[in-house]
Amino acid sequence: MRHRSLLILSTVLTGALTLTACGSRDNTGGGTAGGDSNTTVVIGLDAPLTGDLSALGLGIRNSVDLAVRTANEKKYVDGVTFKLEALDDQAQPSSGQQNASKLVANKDVLGVVGPLNSNVAESMQKVLDDAKLVQVSPANTNPALSQGPNWNSGDKKRGFKAYFRTATTDAIQGPFAAQYIVNKAKKTKAFIIDDKKTYGAGLAATFKAEFEKLGGKVVGTDHINPEAKDFSAVATKVKSSGADVVYYGGEYPAGGPLSKQIKEAGAKVVVAGGDALYSPEYIKLAGASSQGDIATSVGAPIEQLDSAKEFLANYKKANFKEAYEAYGGYAYDSAWAIIEAVKKVVDENDGKLPEDARAKVVDAMQGVSFDGVTGKVSFDEFGDTTNKQLTVYTVEGDAFKDVESGTFTG
């Protein structure tokens, strides 16, 4: 008779958050998954759990934690107890690569959720793919990660079979923002800034192409070092350019102060950006002058989705200290996709994990399809989500308010 699992939350010395299950278990990772025995399957997680982007990373971690708890409580995969190993990458590619190697070395890990940052993903993809260890990101949006470096010219090639994501890409997000800014916000003169990172530069480029296609004029471009605190030089350029909108390809730790300093320089502009600005932290950093600033984000507002009601209630019930933030629902769905793939592999192998479980999970992931927190979860031939919906938000008071949801039409 299988013992009822008791979930215990503990922090180990490495800084990794783990969920362990008390009861019978088999540490081989490939043992029998049926009958009275119990197999432990570890879901790894890589995200910034400390540092400037930790608000987003902790929301991802908590949401994956919730998925693991739910699967165990429901005994969703017969004979399998799931465990979470969460590693901190501090939004640094080198740390992400080290974490990928650590997760590969743990034979019980059959899937990885994360990372947050596209440049961190670049450092992890080959390590995980070589080990046939599936990776599902809830937040990466750079198209090249799944479609290759020449995706924009139509030469799309999937480089890593083990890489998937539940967030849509900047091939859609940048143009979607441009359409709203030109057609609805009626802004026609843009100053475009990016942080030179994979995500920021790529997003800015896709915005620029669509903005100009729609008749908008780019009156200036520049780059910033996101680690800097003084953006006065670029703020002066924006003011003298005559721009009525600034589009920033980057993340909120620099985006908030950048917006504030541009407004303080006297520029009468709206600052806009992508999903990495969509956080209450942006508003705190940008200050009162951020009213009317724009951010797009993946999917529809989770609070308005019937499919998310159970997730929202369970997240609240779990009493996490941190909010689920922009990617919570996508993180839960990423973890659940791994759980579904593991279930398929076990079910098709007479209730056991096969010796080549990792490779089998990668294969199973391609066919995963279920109704998730964020809507229908499934993947196309590149491993990208089939959910292409996006939402425009504007700062109103001390929060972002959704103003338009839809998909890019181009």
Task: Walk me through what this model shows.
- Helix 9 links the parallel strand 11 (270-273) and strand 12.
- Mean pLDDT is 91; it is low at 1-36.
- This protein is of the alpha/beta class and 410 residues long.
- The protein has 12 helices and 16 strands.
- The chain has helices spanning 54-73, 93-105, 118-130, 144-147, 170-183, 198-213, 232-241, 252-264, 280-286, 309-317, 328-347, 357-366, and strands at residues 6-11, 17-22, 39-47, 80-88, 109-113, 135-137, 163-165, 189-194, 217-223, 245-249, 270-273, 294-298, 369-372, 375-378, 390-396, 399-406.
- Helix 2 runs parallel beside helix 3 (118-130).
- A 7-stranded mixed β-sheet has the order 1-2-4-3-5-6-7, with helices on both faces. Strands 9-8-10-11-12-15-16 form a 7-stranded mixed β-sheet, sandwiched between helices. A two-stranded antiparallel sheet has the order 13-14.
- The radius of gyration is 21 Å and the shape is elongated.
- Helix content is 36%, strand content 22%.
